[in-house]
Design a protein that fits this description.
Organism: Lupinus angustifolius
Subcellular location: Cytoplasm
Keywords: Cytoplasm, Metal-binding, Zinc, Zinc-finger
Order of helices and strands: EE
Shape: elongated
Number of helices: 0
Radius of gyration: 24 Å
Pfam family, one: ZF-HD_dimer
Strand order of the largest sheet: 1-2
Largest sheet: 2 strands, antiparallel
Protein name: ZF-HD dimerization-type domain-containing protein
Number of strands: 2
Strand content: 15-25%
Distance between the termini: 45 Å
């Protein structure tokens, strides 16, 4: 049996950083679950009821439910500040 060799290549230079933007979209809470149905309230976007850092910041001002019921949309962008080597043009 042959052994496998794993080669890890490390890039020198400044590490890349990731910029994340989190947005909460439409509410997906099923209001008719206790009667065996399916009904959502139509809330299109999470709007915090209070200031950031308070417990009311996790409650939606439009539909009065917790932020976890809203669809989480993450936009990630990787920013790398390394430069590639230039060729001599030949």
């Amino acid at each position: 049996m042959r052994k496998r060799q794993v080669v890890v290549r490390r890039l020198e230079g400044p590490p890349s950083r990731s910029v994340r933007s989190v947005k909460y979209g439409e509410c997906q809470k099923n209001h008719a679950a206790n009667v065996g149905g399916y009904a959502v309230d139509g809330c299109r976007e999470f709007m915090a009821s209070g200031d950031e850092g308070t417990s009311s910041a996790l409650i939606c001002a439009a539909c009065n439910c917790h932020r976890n019921f809203h669809k989480k949309e993450v936009e990630a962008e990787t920013v790398s500040e390394c430069s590639s080597p230039t060729s001599s043009g030949t």
